[in-house]
Amino acid sequence: MATKKKYVYYFGDGRADGRGDMKDLLGGKGAGLAEMTRLGIPVPAGFTITTEACIEFFDNKKSYPKGMWEEALAALKRVEKSIGCGFGDPKSPLLVSVRSGAKASMPGMMDTVLNLGLNDQTVLGLIEKSKNERFGYDAYRRFISMFGSVVMGVKRDKFEKALEEKKLQLRARLDTDLPAEALKEMVQTYKKIVLNETGRNFPEDPIEQLRLGINAVFNSWFGQRAMTYRRLNNIPDTWGTAVSVVAMVFGNLGETSGTGVAFTRDPSTGERRFFGEFLFNAQGEDVVAGIRTPLPIDALKQKLPKAYRDLMAVYKKLEKHYKDMLDIEFTIQEGKLYMLQTRVGKRTAAAAMRIAVEMAKEKLITKETALLRIDPVQLDQLLHPMIDPKAKVRIIAKGLPASPGAAIGKVVFTAEEAQHMAERHERVILVRTETSPEDIGGMHAAEGIVTARGGMTSHAAVVARGMGKCCVAGCGALHIDEERKFFTVGDVTVKEGDYITLNGSTGEVILGQVDLIQPEMSGSFKTLMGWADAARKLNVRANADTPHDARVAREFGAEGIGLCRTEHMFFEGDRIKAVREMILADTLEGRKRALAKLLPMQKGDFIGIFREMKGLPVTIRLLDPPLHEFLPQTEEDLEELSREMGIHVDLLRAKNRSLHEFNPMLGHRGCRLGITFPEIYEMQAQAIFEAACELAQEKLKVIPEVMIPLVAHIKELSEMKALCVRTAEEVMARYKKKISYTIGTMIELPRAALVADQIAREAEFFSFGTNDLTQTTFGLSRDDAGRFLPDYVHKGILDQDPFVAIDQEGVGLLMKMGVEKGRSARPGMKIGICGEHGGEPSSVEFCHRIGLNYVSCSPFRVPIARLAAAQAMVRGKMKGKDGGHRATV
Ligand code: PEP
Ligand code: MG
């Protein structure tokens, strides 16, 4: 015979049917109450009706599952026995609270009723027992208004209005100024309101009240507030809510009573100190309502020392048991402490870090658990300035949170203006429809960047992340008039020179200046990162294009450069002129003349980067973007260039036209440029190896890894590799130096992944360019997707933006195939990733699982990747396999 399903779990007097690990069935609150009872902590007796009962209630067209009600009544009897009062007993009435509680905390989203069990008779018993008439009628009128609104659907303000009228009539300022007689009258007034509004009498039968109360809490699971919260937080409807019915204890029975909330450690700093607030002579709702200012918990120490000592003992016991920082709620009734709730407390990133490290040092948790306690993404909060959480802000628009941190500045609309103003020590925010490589200087000068178009891997997003600069991308609500230098959003107009503030962690654009708080990399941060480094297998490199970025990357713990994009070097200072000269030249000789001017500058860059990286590997990618990106786009700029170079403007226009491509991302770029113009790649290889040889002369170690982009066919790679090898050998012979180097390729096109075994015959390493690989696998432009991808995520077609987190089923399958095929042809081949996904935790875990050697990401995301790599390892071990490779970097 099947065992009967249990719908009701009792707790009281040190015994509980449930346990702390039964959150699915009892909800967070029910599980916490059961566990505290088992631990011998004082909790008022009660019972929890399961989430399963809630789901079956809805399945059964809102009738209780068979046996549930009888179980509840039996549990109620046990509560009566434990408390020594009777439910509905006019002499010694038991009152209960009926509380919701789902598996995940949904603060304030569902309903609760307090003081249930009161009627015209039991209120007299309550007064008799408390010897306090005012308290009795106050509890009763509060109950009618709460039950009337939550259960019977009367608008709350009807009750509030009646109370205000009474206060006015008696010239009472606060509710507490109303005498017992007035509250007694309010009970009658409230009952009339209920009758008028619903056509029904207020139910006097406590059992009927209980039944209606339980129904109301069940029903609140599908209330508007709860449904919206679930949608926003990805909580499924199928979880249901549990209902806890708990004997009431009163914090408002006079000056030896009260109620409070506390954290077992400081939730903002993580300091190991009990941190709480308390109100004497008050009920829980008074603390939350914020009408009276709560006192620090120390106030309790002087006035109620016994309760204070008990509370200290309880919190220590709870923390030791749960091995985490907890948030607790308690009530003191006439000097006696009762715990009403406990759950793992929310905390800031800094606090999370400190708590995890200190708890591991206190041997409460292991180092592995400490590592898993931190959400890697939270680390961002510690590395960038943030908006002061106490600041009042006026948000005018929201775009994509493209690069975290916060920035304040005056609005400018062009890169040149950004640079001009920055030179005058003004802080600026660069506002553009979208950015292009030409804007690099202005982006560098700005505090932050906003674009109206573009997604998470748009130019602005990628470059800003690389610079560690705050960026909001794809903020479609901004209507930017770059010509007339203003933007509008709704009815707000922001002109050049007006201040705005950006929150790159949330995508918010805020009007005016807001207070920021600066990051602090505390001792705990360093300790935890040290543990992460010891735990992980995956190496972490950075994407860095300048000596400055390389230094930042090393400071953040990068173990090499996984991607140095050489095109960014082409825009600096005077070089753009030489680049344009090269593009405009019609003959090989002309191009070579221009390239000869670029050679020393490029070599200088590489020397700077190699020096900063102090013998760590540096992967340098040869030129990737289509050439037209280097030519001026506006008429004004064309004319200026024509004057500078002494070339007729018509000729320039014609050149621009000839370079125009319908789909440049799939056009003449990557190694396709090297195939057509081998002299460009030759110059770059020469610069790399001359730089390496010159440093070798100084006895500095360098490890260059030359990377060929956008390879689809083995022959593209063999030709470009031969060119690089020839150049390297020639340079090394000239310098009489031997440098060990490798030549590899990016895997960023589906075809390359499909024929990775062929490509691995030539490539000495692979690096997955998952930005382009995602773009080409989905056939989805990375620069335009920002406009409509949010709809896909919102509608649940995609769980996440695939440009943010690797699409493991599709793009990930190609990567897996690339790894397997690559290593089948070249066993033990070093393989990494340098797309933006390299700094996103779920993608890092995926890279660990498929056996990559390293991930490479923007310098500011290096700590995130280090922690995510450690977590991947710890989780893998827990599942019984460690996966991943650790090779030489
Ligand atoms: C990529 O495609 O993933 C990559 C790293 O190259 P880029 O973003 O420069 O195209
Ligand atoms: Mg690419």
From TrEMBL:
Q: Which residues form a coiled coil?
A: none
Boundaries of each PEP-utilising enzyme mobile domain copy?
426-507
The record lists the catalysed reaction(s) as: pyruvate + phosphate + ATP = phosphoenolpyruvate + AMP + diphosphate + H(+)
Q: Where does the record place the catalytic residues?
A: H459 (tele-phosphohistidine intermediate), C834 (proton donor)
Which branch of life, at top level? Bacteria
Q: Quote any Pfam family the record assigns.
A: PEP-utilizers_C
Q: Which UniProt keywords apply?
A: ATP-binding, Kinase, Magnesium, Metal-binding, Nucleotide-binding, Pyruvate, Transferase
Q: What does this protein do?
A: Catalyzes the reversible phosphorylation of pyruvate and phosphate.
Protein name as annotated = Pyruvate, phosphate dikinase
